Amino acid sequence: MITSDMIRKHNSLTGLCRCIRQTPQNFNNNLRRETVSFEEMIRNVEVLSVEYEQVFVFSNGEKIQNDNMGSEPIKLNTDEM
Fold it and tell me: What is the Cα–Cα distance from 16 to 41, expressed in whole angstroms?
């Protein structure tokens, strides 16, 4: 989900920021500087009632995905590397 999708869901940047308990200025600064922490992102995911998925994509297009969202470590087969 990109910022414009989040804003569309809440009708305005102000509405989005109100939900994630940040000022629009602080939110914009964090995005511009790319200083959103993982903890902030997960909190925002919960507040926005969306899902976060993390996928590793190799150059050949193969994907490794952890469907448990961190409850179990991702296991890589290092013999194939």
Answer: 13
Domain hosting residue 75, numbered range: 3-80
pLDDT, tens only, 48-71: 788 888 888 899 988 887 665 554
Structure tokens at 74: 């991702």
Name the E strands within 1-81. Answer: 55-57, 63-65
Report the C-alpha gap between 74 and 65 in whole angstroms.
8
Q: Indicate the number of domains in the chain.
A: 1
The predicted model scores a pTM of 0.52
CA distance 8 to 52: 18
